[in-house]
Automatic annotation (TrEMBL):
Transmembrane segment boundaries: none
Single annotated GO MF: catalytic activity
Highest taxon, organism lineage: Bacteria
Organism: Streptomyces malaysiensis
Name of the protein: AB hydrolase-1 domain-containing protein
Pfam families hit by this protein: Abhydrolase_1 (PF00561)
Domain AB hydrolase-1: 3-119
């Protein structure tokens, strides 16, 4: 199961799909509440609620055990699954993932994010900054346009309070599930050092991979490298 982040729906993984191994894997890409085809589904829009939704989806699919991929906010969501049902998670990949302790922000930075649901220019600024200011204007415009068309602003605002402010790291500390963290070298926020201070401290079997040419959106920026990082890890014990 591959879970998207704050600004996108399941299409966050679209650039990866031509490169995945469909003979070896079955990928499921759900829309979280407030996004894509689940845009009009009401809820509390929290990572805990979403973790329960993913377990319900796994039950519906008949999946007793499965691996998880979570990008950014989705990284917090998939950890809720680990907290609730660690025995069901085979392997976990966090892609520029939010730690279980949240992402502390203050002042202008918090306001930039808090206003983003209603201000496209804020979404654009966040995407530009978190990818190192390296990408063409047309790419930024495309990312923002898709975000606007496939997310509900009220849900987006509620999601922010959950992934940024909630701290549930004690619920996952010491978990035995194998974890691979993938970060982009050009992401100034969720850096390799942040992962060392959070994810790598709390998970017993965790490792870190840094993609040289990616920022916060490796699935869009370096899709083939991300597929390799994901699929090599999932099959590492086979």
């Amino acid at each position: 199961m591959a879970v998207h982040g704050w600004f996108s729906d399941r299409a966050a993984y679209a650039a990866m799909l031509p490169h995945v191994d469909r003979r070896g894997f079955t990928y499921v890409l759900p829309d979280l509440r407030g996004y894509g085809e689940a845009r009009d589904i009401p809820g509390s829009y929290t990572t805990g609620e979403a973790g329960g939704d993913l377990l319900a989806l796994a039950d519906h699919l008949g999946w007793e055990r499965f691996s998880l991929i979570g990008h950014s906010m989705g990284g917090a969501v998939v950890q809720r699954v680990v907290a609730a049902a660690p025995h069901r998670v085979r392997r976990l990949v966090g892609v520029a993932p939010v730690p279980a302790s949240g992402v502390p922000m203050e002042g202008e930075q918090w306001q930039l994010f808090a206003d983003a649901p209603d201000r496209p220019e804020n979404r654009r600024a966040i995407i530009d900054r978190t990818t190192g200011g390296r990408h063409p204007a047309a790419w930024l415009d495309l990312m923002v346009r898709h975000s606007l068309e496939h997310s509900d602003p009220k849900a987006l605002r509620a999601w922010l309070d959950s992934w940024a402010l909630e701290d549930f790291h004690e619920d996952i500390a010491g978990a035995q599930v194998p974890v691979r963290i993938v970060v982009g070298a050009h992401d100034p926020a969720l850096t390799a050092e942040v992962m060392r201070q959070t994810w790598l401290r709390w998970y017993v079997n965790a490792e870190l991979v840094e993609l040289e040419y990616a920022g916060h959106y490796p699935a869009d920026e370096t899709p083939q490298e991300l597929v390799r990082a994901v699929e090599d890890f999932i099959t590492a014990d086979e």
